[in-house]
UniProtKB/TrEMBL annotation:
UniProt GO cellular component terms: cytosol
Name of this protein: Iron-sulfur cluster assembly protein
Signal peptide region: none
InterPro entries with a match to the protein in the record: ATAP, ATAP_core_dom, Fe-S_cluster_asmbl/transfer, HesB-like_dom_sf
A molecular function GO annotation: 2 iron, 2 sulfur cluster binding
Short name of one Pfam family: Fe-S_biosyn
GO biological process: iron-sulfur cluster assembly
Amino acid sequence: MASSQNASDTGSAAPAVRKRSRFQVLTLTEAAAERLREILDNTDREVAAVRLGVKKGGCAGMEYTMEYAETIAPGEDVVEDKGVKLIVDPKAVLFLLGTEMDYQVGKMSSGFVFNNPNQTSACGCGESVEIAPASPEALAQAGL
């Protein structure tokens, strides 16, 4: 990934957006990247990226979240993969580490699918999941 600039490089006292060079929190399949590009290209808003996160909810305990991000806040992790810029909510990094984001189209539905090694279970409807934070071994392997 790109390196971060510090305040002395820019002449500004504003903190830099954190960009990781040693690991990438998540990756995209070609299908996910293509669908995200379509979504971003068809919005009427000025959008810097798509923000991903997790929140408490559903019968299994957590849900994945996606929203347009008009700005990138200091301290947010930025992932650039296959020409798409994603922002990972800092509170979600440990839950999303190692995840592959895919987009699948079926006869009855289509949507983003998160192949997450930290997911321990999912509800029957597929709307919520149980996710454990990444293990110390996974953190060490990622260089954290």
